[in-house]
Write a structure and sequence with these properties.
Distance between the termini: 68 Å
Structural class: mainly alpha
CATH topology of the largest domain: hpI Integrase, Chain A
Strand content: under 5%
Shape: globular
Radius of gyration: 23 Å
CATH superfamily of the largest domain: Intergrase catalytic core
CATH architecture of the largest domain: Orthogonal Bundle
Order of helices and strands: HHHHHHHEEEHHHHHH
CATH class of the largest domain: Mainly Alpha
Number of helices: 13
Length: about 300
Amino acid sequence: MEWEQVKRDFKRYLLLERGLSDNSILAYLNDVQKLQSFAEVQQLELKQFSASHIQQFLEWINQFPISEFSQARILSGIKTFFGFLQIEYSFLNNPAELIEAPRLSRKVPSVLNIQEIDQLIAAIDLSSAEGMRNKAILETLYGCGLRVSELCKLKISNLFLDVEFIKVEGKGNKERLIPIGNHAIKYIKMYLDEVRVHLKIKPGNEDFVFLNRRGSPLSRVMIFIIIKDLANKIGLEKEISPHTFRHSFASHLVEGGADLRAVQDMLGHESITTTEIYTHIDKDYLQSVITQFHPRS
């Protein structure tokens, strides 16, 4: 069985049947490439793989500087690959199916409080065209909890501001509707009507909301630079990124009593366990519980 042919078929399966994004497909193919390298070292054919071989493969990749999170993701990719082989190549079993992933510790994400978010947004120079755009960007990031990739790909045709919703394309090209608040609506409209309308837009980019001065969609790196510059401007000591606004959005909703399932839907999380991390980060609330209820406080 030829590895290259199998990988081409697997790529086609991920694209057409799973509908995954280019980045996700590349990650899966990289996982399979690692498995192929191991198989060549061990002189193994694909059909010879057993559960013990998968265990040996995991021990093999553990020699390299790969984090436990990456190892878990690689194992997930290998399970998907052998599942594909069962479907398309009539493999009798999936040797990776019963292999457990490394136990992962969940890190509490860094968030901004409302005062810090207000300070960052207030530091934007609204006298410039870029400043008007940047204010709309930050209000949208925080107001909707978007991933930076979702913000960069946001389209005018997916803005339903009259009914206070936007449609975004998330991981795996999955679409979801998210409510959008009055602040974000106000500054998006101002940006569209007073700034964007004067840009010379490159052909093919007419539907993207946020553009650079050359009329092209903003890159993820540019959003990161905008936020880092504002953090330096106000002397914020926390390490922040565009994703910090997403964490803050979720944290503030949960702290305010929002239903966890609703937050999960707005964030586009597949699993509720991913969303549950935001129930552990309201340190002030936890401190007040101790103060109020513990007999030794």
